[in-house]
Design goal:
Layout (H helix, E strand, L loop, with lengths): L2 E5 L3 H13 L3 E5 L2 H5 L9 E5 L9 H5 L5 E5 L4 H9 L4 E4 L4 H18 L13 H13 L6 E4 L6 H12 L3 E6 L5 H10 L4 E6 L6 H13 L3 E6 L11 H8 L2 E3 L10 H13 L5 E2 L1 H9 L5 H15 L5 E2 L8 H14 L3 E2 L2 E2 L4 H12 L5 H8 L3 H11 L8
Parallel strand pairs: 1-2, 1-3, 3-4, 4-5, 6-9, 6-10, 7-8, 8-9, 11-12
Antiparallel strand pairs: 13-14
Length: 408
């Protein structure tokens, strides 16, 4: 069953569209704005997002600026050749003008879902890529956790690979079937059916466990008390932030935990990840990264982690489909600035960029970059050059005890 998200501020239109899609076999969530949609959880959980172009706050097209690889079908009352071209150029799968016939909407949804299945190659390899200590530790923990038939809580930032870890645990456990439930969608009947169906031959994965409602929490806790379900709960937030879960349920989930580190803490794995992802996405293993591009990838903050890296590589391959060496020309900001910085400053001194040696670790690079440039750059400029937010810059300054001159 495909999972769809409808973003529409007009309540009557939103409700009628949701009912239409549900009657035709789709699992549907809805929101009245992009802000409300973000509160439902990671947007990449949906197979298709159907969004009105005109929304309160940010327009629907901003979905494509925030996460260019999102599968988005845009609805617009201002259809014209120019707006359609602009929408498609910005990355939307398709658009449909309002008002629309029900048959036209269903056809557009079917086309969009089929378009996504054709365009997106499936990476089916179940392995933790990388030679870093963090990657090795993950492999060991997953192997150890798979040996006991008890609930497991996997936490980590969005995009770090929690679903991959869940599939690995399922595979290593020897369970025959994998069941999933999205806790951000309050569907008690579906959860009840899954809990009734789950047994010691199946694994039940609960996405966004922190958003499970009180009634569903009791439902789940009772099921866990009654039998041994191979349960794998996923959370973008650390266990300390799961304060909406009841203490009895949290106690059961917290007994066995797997915390997946963000990509910025295992940046030494980026080369191997790029090689693996490019080979899988392009179907060939002869693609290299130009030095400015490699430099940018290594020194970027990666707020979207491995999912963001994959999406970026897909964009680069789409822009340079026959290239043997991918260049930084099609990089979005702030990655493009990092690559340009390497190009400009390594031209005068190939061993460094901005006075920073290129062989440093991420933490060393941060320290050296800030110390070398803070006299001539504002905090905003420093953050942009590092590819992080001002808040992250401040937090890292505190962690590494790097004070700005004159701040005493």
């Amino acid at each position: 069953m495909s999972a769809l998200l409808v973003i529409e501020d007009e309540q009557i239109t939103r409700q009628s569209l949701c009912k239409l899609l549900q009657r035709n076999g789709y699992q549907v969530a809805s929101a009245a704005s992009l802000k409300a949609a973000a509160e439902l959880g990671e947007l990449t959980q949906y197979d298709l997002i159907i969004s009105d172009l005109r929304l309160p706050g940010e327009p629907g097209s901003e979905l494509l600026n925030h996460q260019p690889a999102l599968p988005v079908l845009i609805m617009t009352s201002y259809a014209s050749l120019r707006s359609a071209v602009d929408i498609m150029r910005s990355g939307a799968i398709d658009y449909i003008s309002k008002p629309f016939e029900q048959t036209d909407m269903l056809a557009a949804v079917a086309r969009a879902l089929n378009h996504r299945r054709v365009r997106e190659p499936k990476i089916t390899s179940l392995e933790v890529i990388g030679s870093s200590a963090a990657a090795a530790g993950l492999r060991e923990q997953i192997a150890a956790l798979s040996r006991a038939n008890k609930p497991i809580l996997i936490s980590g930032e969005s995009g770090v690979g929690k679903s991959l870890a869940a599939r690995l645990l399922h595979k290593l456990s020897g369970a025959k079937q994998l069941l999933r439930f999205n806790c951000a969608v309050d569907n008690g009947e579906q959860l009840a059916a899954l809990l009734e169906h789950a047994d010691d031959t199946s694994s039940l994965v609960l996405d966004h466990i922190g958003q499970l409602g009180p009634a569903r929490q009791e439902q789940l806790h009772n099921a866990l008390s009654g039998n041994q379900i191979q349960l794998i709960a996923l959370s973008d937030r650390p266990i300390e932030a799961l304060d909406q879960l009841s203490q009895p349920l949290l106690f059961r989930l917290a007994a066995r935990r797997l915390v997946i580190p963000p990509l910025r803490e295992r940046s030494e794995d980026i080369d191997e990840l790029c090689h693996f992802l490019l080979a899988a996405l392009a179907g060939r293993d002869d693609i290299a990264l130009a030095p400015p591009l490699a430099h940018a990838l290594h020194h970027y903050h990666w707020p979207g982690n491995i999912r963001e890296l994959r999406n970026l590589l897909e964009q680069l391959l789409a822009a340079q489909p026959t290239a043997r060496e991918l260049t930084a020309a099609a990089l979005p900001e702030p990655l493009h600035s990092l690559a340009e910085q390497f190009d400009t400053e390594s031209a005068s001194d190939p061993a460094s960029a901005s006075g920073v040696p290129l062989t440093l670790s991420l933490e060393q690079y941060f320290r050296e970059f800030v110390l070398a440039n803070q006299a001539s750059m504002s905090e905003t400029e420093l953050a942009k050059g590092l590819g992080i937010s001002r808040k992250s810059l401040w937090e890292r300054r505190q962690k590494l005890a790097i004070k700005r001159p004159g701040s005493d």
